[in-house]
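This is your field. Pick holes in the following sequence-structure pair:
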Amino acid sequence: MSDLELCYTPALELARLIAAKTISPVEVVKNSLARIEEVNGKLNCFCFTYPDEAIEKAKAAEAAVLAGESLGPLHGVPIAIKDLTPTKGKRTTFGSYIYENYVPDEDALVVQNLLGAGAIMVGKTTTPEFAFSSLTDTPLWGITRNPWNTERTPGGSSGGSAAAVAAGAVPLAEGSDAGGSVRIPAAHSGCVGLKPSSGRIPFEFLPTQYDFMLCHGPLCRTIADAALFLDICQGPDERDLNTLIPALEVPVPPPSGIKGMRLALSVDYGYYAIDPDVEANTRAAAEAFKEAGAEVEEVELGWTADFNYAWWSYWNVFEAALFGEHLEKWREKMHPSIVSAMEDGLKMSAVDFYKTQLIYTEAWNKLREVFERCDALLCPTEAIPAPPVEYDELGSIGVDEDGKFVNMDMTMQFNALKLPALSVPSGFSKEGLPTGLQIVGKRTDDLTVLRIGAAFETLRPWAQYRPPL
C-alpha cells in the first residue's frame, strides 16, 4: 500500500524534505512505484515504468544526500515523461504502432534538464497517436481514464501525465501542448497545467525548427511546482530556433499579490456554448479576484469559429507533413481520427494554409486591444467537464439551437497567438468532475500568469481535493 500523504506531497516540498534528510529518496520513489501499481490497471496512464532503474537511481540520490553533495532542485523526486518526448535508450512510441519499437539515441533537452536537476524518471505516460487528440485513446495502448470518474476521459494529449499526477502517482509530469494538450487534461483531471510562451522552453527534436505551436509544460498540483519546472527547463538554447532570450528570473514560489491588477474576463469568447457549471465556476473565480483587490472587466473579443477551423487546418497539415509518409503502409493500424486529419492536411493548398495566418492576425489585433488596458485574460479552459471516454471528439463539433459553437476545447487560440496560458482547478461540476480556469498572459509574460495562478491558489485552495481512487 502506498502512503497517500506522501503521494500528494508537491515536488518542491519533497525535494526540501529529501535535502533535509527528513525522508529518503528511496522511500519516495518506492512509494511512487507502489501508487502506479495501484492505479495504472484502472487508469492506463503509464505505458512504461522503470522500477529497478528508478530504485537504483534513488539509492544513488540517497548516498549523495548523506555525503553532503550539492543537490539539484528536484533531487530524488520521481517524475514522469510523456511518450511523445524522446528518452535515451527507452522506447518512445508517440502512441503509434508505427514507432512501437523506436528507441531514441538522446534525451530531449527538457528531459536532460529535469534529470540534470536531480529528478528520477519512474515511467512514461500515455498519449494519443502523434499527440493528435484531446482524448487519450490509442490503438497501441488503449484508453486512458480519468481518476475522478473512470468512465470519463482525462483529456489529451498529455492525458497520461495529467491522470498520473491527479492520482498521486507522481508529483510532476512533463507534457507538451500544441493546441491545449497540457491545459486540456489539467482542466479535466483537476490539476495545474502551464503552457509557457512559445519558445520559452526549448522544443528542439521536431524535424522542423519553424513550428511555434508546440511547447513543453508541466502537469502538477501546485503553482510553485509549475514555476520550478519552468525555471529548470527554460532556455535559451540555440538548438531551438524559436528560443526566447534572455531567460526569466523565475521566483519559486511565485508571489501572489494581485491588488490593483486589471483582469479581462471572457466566458465564451463571444461564440462558444458553455456548460453552466463551467460558466458558474469561471464567474466565481472572477469574483474571488475582485474580492482580492483586482479589477475585472468583462470583455467582448469578437472572435468566431473561423479561429478554430484555421487552427485545425494548421494541425492537419502539421500531422500530414511530419507523419503522412506512413499513411499508406500503416493506415489500418492507425486511429481513424489521425487518418482523417492527415488526409485533410494532404488536400490543403499552400495558399489556403497561408491564409490561416490572416485569421490569427485578426484575432490577435482584437485581443491586443484588450491587453492594452488589462494585465491578463480569464476564461474557461474547457467548455465542458470531462466527457465520456467514447466521446466523439470530431463529430460533436457544430452549432447548438442558440447558434452557439459546440466544441470542447478553448485552448488552441493561445497556441496560435504564442501566448503563455495556465490552467488551474476552478471547482467541480454537479457530477463531481473538475473544471478549469484558464489564465492567459501578454506576450512573453509568463511571470504574471504564474502570479495570478498563485493568487487563485491562495484564494481558492485545491490541494485538499483528491479523486476517489
Notes: The chain has two domains: 4-233, 262-442. The chain has a mean pLDDT of 97. Residues 350-371 form the longest helix (22 residues).
